[in-house]
Design brief:
Blueprint lengths: L2 H25 L5 H12 L2 H22 L7 E2 L3 E7 L2 E6 H14 L3 E11 L7 E11 L4 H20 L6 E9 L11
Parallel strand pairs: 5-6
Antiparallel strand pairs: 1-4, 2-3, 4-5
Helix pairs in contact: 1-3
């Protein structure tokens, strides 16, 4: 449920609560009949009452239609583990963070890459085989050919995943977000 639908549901719930308390107070005669009838006649004669009622009807229709809307989406995650082998003896799982880190290091080793950010997505459908995809955001040097860098990176990552984890056809989506003259950022390791 989107944030807008939640806000509209909050408004509708508060209005319903207020109306319920008013009806309850009138039924239990906490409010004298002549007072609430006089206020009701006054409120029904105002233009604002019609506007508020129209807005509430539109909110109700929107929320009613939201109940029946379906957004086709496959559940995906970027945290956790990915099962690369399962059998009667057990499972072999690899952390998604370890896979992301490996792809990040491999991307930084490609000639011409200045900086890289890797996002990994594991799609786990209810039935069928799970799939894995990588999104790589690169900053490359001005001297680098973008198509060669992307092809080299894709081939290296796919080959390494095939060799080490027996994962074939892992899609690698490369996006070059910056072409820069800056030197590659060196990460200092504390030992």
């Amino acid at each position: 449920m989107s944030i807008i639908n939640r806000f509209l549901l909050l408004l509708l719930s508060l209005m319903g609560l207020a109306l319920s308390f008013a009806v309850l107070a009138a039924a239990m005669q906490v409010l004298p009949e002549n007072v609430w009838l006089k206020q009701l006649h006054f409120v029904l004669a105002q233009k604002e009452t019609y506007i508020v009622c129209l807005v509430m009807v539109l909110i109700c229709v929107k929320l009613f239609l939201a109940v029946f809307s379906r957004k086709p989406s496959t559940p995906s995650t970027s945290k956790g583990e990915y099962v690369i082998d399962a059998g009667p003896q057990g499972e072999v799982r690899v952390s998604l963070e370890a896979m992301r880190s490996l792809a990040d290091r491999m991307a930084r080793e490609v000639h011409g890459v200045r900086d890289a950010k890797v996002r990994i997505k594991a799609h786990n459908p209810k039935e069928g085989e799970a799939s894995l995809s990588l999104d790589v955001d690169l900053s490359v040097g001005r001297e680098a050919e973008v198509s060669v860098v992307a092809k080299t990176l894709t081939n290296r990552v796919q080959e390494h995943f095939r060799r080490t984890m027996a994962l074939t056809d892992v899609p690698v989506n490369v996006m070059v977000s910056e072409v820069s003259d800056a030197e590659p950022e060196k990460k200092h390791r504390v030992v």
